[in-house]
Amino acid sequence: RFKAVIFDLDGVITDTAHYHFLAWQRMAERQGVRFDHAFNEQLKGIDRMGSLELILAAAGRQYTAPEKLALADSKNLHYQELITGMTAADLLPGAVAALDAVRAAGLRIGLASVSKNAFTVLDRLGIRAKFDYVVDAALIARGKPDPEIFLKAASELGVAPADCLGVEDAVAGVAAIKAAGMFALGIGLPQVLTQADRVIAGLDQFDLAMLQRLPVSLQN
Ligand code: BG6
Ligand code: MG
What we know:
Blueprint: E1 4-7, H1 16-30, H2 37-43, H3 48-56, H4 65-82, H5 95-104, E2 108-111, H6 118-125, E3 133-134, H7 148-157, E4 164-168, H8 171-179, E5 183-187, E6 198-200, H9 208-213
């Protein structure tokens, strides 16, 4: 069955999704764009410039490339302020247990986050060493829902995509896992993550033994 598990970071292992929300919200509202949780849902898993484009499309005016970069930088500085105090206490329930269960079962462990802050967040949480391979978002040309980041993780782990389980909280992330030809475990609500093969509320419900018993015909 599965030979590797590839995790998303934000919203799966830690609740940075909330900090991204706060930082985008302040930036958006300064541009006169109303930004609520429904809008934020569309941005989950989308890279920084892609998210910015979606927000500015609602602003009703054109922005130059330097203006866009300045807005993206200011959002990122605010986000970095918000995550300065992060520690292992910010790990979501069940996250470490899930990583340890995958390790104990002898599977490979990857991280596929499009966040350029992923290494910082992993270090603050104290879990970087738990991964066999962490994709460097700076090396990824196409963000989720493109499968590139999950395929890169699988190839670096030396595991065929069909033998990988991907774990994601975002609609775009689940789409990326499916486009990569992997089994998608959604974290969140089944009515939101409709493309996922299975959905659980959080990693505290992660049951590797059960997933390993799923018939291969159920996947991909
Ligand atoms: C994703 C988040 O993991 O990373 C998005 O779900 C975020 O909300 C994206 O915009 C990019 O993050 P960063 O840290 O590179 O701005
Ligand atoms: Mg996420």
